Structures are given as structure tokens and as C-alpha cells.
Amino acid sequence: MDMNKNKHLPFKGLNLPAEEAIKRSAEFFELMRQRRSVRFFSDRAVPRQIIDNIIKTAGSAPSGAHKQPWSFCVVSNKQLKSKIRDLAEKEEKINYESRMSERWKEDLEFLGTDNIKEFIEIAPYLIIVFRKPYDFDEKGNKTQNYYVNESVGIASGFLITAIHNAGLVTLTHTPSPMGFLEEVLNRPKNEKAYLLLPVGYPAENATVPNLTRKKINEIAFYYE
């Protein structure tokens, strides 16, 4: 007997004609080619529905055994954002002064980064992504999650893509160590901070580093 017979549903997919698929893939590339990490935010309000939609998009990502080992904490409270900035800057100051190697700091010079993180307070929303190495069943027993880092990384990619698609900007920020986020947001013990994303519109005078991305022949290798 097929044990999965009643657990699967028919799936047809989009089944686009080749010409339409090529057109859509090129248009999507052009959209994503414009994505940049932005450090200068406007305090312009962002509709809550946009935030809901981009998080739902992130939650559609694949995960090991479909455990969905993630949580997304959305912070808009000004006092809480200020507290998070203060704690993040303290960790970043230590990073720049002692934890980061000289080579690492040299590699960051062209980005113009430092331990000051104004964007944490200016951006209307912070989305803090948490990974869950394990969960609990209805009886309070631990249940294992699988490929947690990979799953949460994919969901974060979906989230960043959805942010850009909505006309917003973000920045992947990891003020390591990130344990203070678990404490300040009072998260359960099975959640570990993974990524902090300020989300909003770019400031009118926003700038980004003049970067180039690797060409396709540097990143794609075909075996035909």
C-alpha cells in the first residue's frame, strides 16, 4: 500500500511556454539586478500589509522535512529599536576593536562600515530572523529539526527578494554575537538569532558602494 497516497495533492506547475519562461526569467533578473544592500534609510512609513506579505513569502521557503524552523520578529516600537541599536553597537565596537582580523577590516574598508548603526533606529521596521534547532510537541517534548541553517538561509533569501520586489530596501546585519536579541525580545529558549534586517524605503540622499558582480562564466559551470 502506498502510505503517501492520501498525503499528496496533484501538482501541475505553471507549465509556461519556453518563450514566456525566457521572458519572465530575464525580467526577474533585471529586477533583482537592481537589488542593493542599503545603509541609509528614510523614516517614511511602510504599510503593515507589505510586511505581512513579505514574511508570508519567506514562510513559503522549502525546509528540511518541512519543519519550517524559523520565526520572524517584527519590531517597530521606537524605544525597542533604540535599545537594540545600543546593544548592537556595543557588540560591533568590540568586533572592530578586537574580534575582527586586520584582513577582515581591510576587506570591509571600501564599504565604509563601522560600529555605528543608525539605520536600526531610522528604518520603520526591523525584522529579526530566528532559527529553531528544535521545537516542542504538544506534550512539551523536544522534536528535532533538520538542515536548520540551510532552511533558514533559504527563507532569508526569499525574504530579501520579497523586500526588493515590494520596492523596499534592506541590509543583512549580523551583530555577532547575537544572543542579546534573544534576550531583549524575550524569545523562547529554542530560538537563536540568525539575521537582523532593517526594512524601509531608501533615504533621498542614499548612496551605495560602486560594486560589480561576478559574470555568469565565473559562477556557472555546465556539464553537457
Report the total helices.
Answer: 8
Q: Separation of termini?
A: 39 Å
The main β sheet shows up as: 4 strands, antiparallel
Q: Stretches where pLDDT falls below 50 for ≥5 residues?
A: none
**Considering the protein shown, what is the CATH homologous superfamily of the domain at 55-204?**
NADH Oxidase
Named CATH architecture of the domain at 55-204:
3-Layer(aba) Sandwich
Range of strand content = 5-15%
Indicate the overall shape. Answer: globular
What is the CATH third-level topology name of the domain at 55-204? NADH Oxidase
Helix fraction by DSSP (H/I, runs of at least 4)? 25-40%
- Write the H/E string, N to C: HHEHHHEEEHEHEH
Secondary-structure-derived class? alpha+beta
User: How many individual β-strands?
Assistant: 6
Major β-sheet strand ordering: 1-2-6-5
Please state the CA-atom Rg, rounded to the nearest Å.
20 Å
The CATH class label of the domain at 55-204 is Alpha Beta
The averaged pLDDT comes out at 94
